[in-house]
Design a protein that fits this description.
Elements lengths: L2 H41 L15 H7 L2 H23 L4 H32 L8 H4 L2 H10 L11
Helix pairs in contact: 1-3, 1-4, 1-6, 2-4, 3-4, 4-6
C-alpha cells in the first residue's frame, strides 16, 4: 500500500471506528465533560448551563486558562475534524478530492493535537500542577479536567498567549 492509498483510507477508517464505539464512547466523554465543567463553572462563579452543551462547555475553561480566540480556533478545528470524514464518505468516487481532503484531515488532526496539548498545559498550570509530572494527562484531555476539578485555581498562567 503506498502513501496515497493510506491517506485515502484515513477518513473511512475513522468512520468505521466511529460506527462501532461512537455512542458509548461519546456518552462517556460527554458525562465526564459535563461533570468537570459544571464543577469548574461553579468554582469560577459562572452560570452552569453551558456545561451541558458539548464543545461550548469549554468556553469558560479556555477563557480562564488560555484565551477566547483559542477557544474559537479550537471549536473550528473540532467541527472540521468531525465533518471531514463524512464529506470524504460522500465523495467516495472522486479520488483526487478525497486525497486532498484526507491531507486536510491530517492537518486538522495535527492542529487539534497542538491545541489540546496547549490548553492541557495551560489548564494544568492554572490549577497548580507541574506539567512535566502530569504530561500524560494532556493526551486524554478529560483527565486534565478531572485534575482541574481537584486542584486549586491559581489564575490564567498562559503567559500572554
Amino acid at each position: 500500500m503506498n502513501i496515497i492509498h493510506f491517506l485515502e483510507k484515513i477518513p473511512f477508517l475513522e468512520l468505521e471506528l466511529l460506527e462501532k464505539i461512537a455512542l458509548p464512547y461519546l456518552i462517556c466523554l460527554y458525562l465526564i465533560d459535563v461533570f468537570c465543567t459544571y464543577r469548574l463553572y461553579k468554582r469560577f462563579n459562572e452560570p452552569v448551563w453551558p456545561s451541558f452543551i458539548p464543545f461550548f462547555n469549554w468556553k469558560i475553561l479556555f477563557e480562564k486558562c488560555w484565551n477566547l480566540r483559542a477557544f474559537k480556533e479550537h471549536l473550528i478545528i473540532e467541527i472540521c475534524g468531525l465533518a471531514l470524514p463524512f464529506i470524504c464518505e460522500a465523495l467516495k468516487g472522486k479520488e483526487l478530492i478525497v486525497l486532498i481532503l484526507s491531507i486536510v484531515d491530517l492537518i486538522v488532526a495535527c492542529l487539534g493535537l497542538k491545541h489540546a496539548y496547549e490548553i492541557g498545559v495551560f489548564t494544568l498550570k492554572s490549577f497548580g500542577y507541574e506539567t512535566k509530572k502530569y504530561l500524560w494527562s494532556i493526551f486524554i484531555f478529560d483527565l486534565v479536567l478531572v485534575l482541574a476539578v481537584k486542584g486549586k485555581y491559581q489564575g490564567n498562567l498562559s503567559h500572554g498567549h
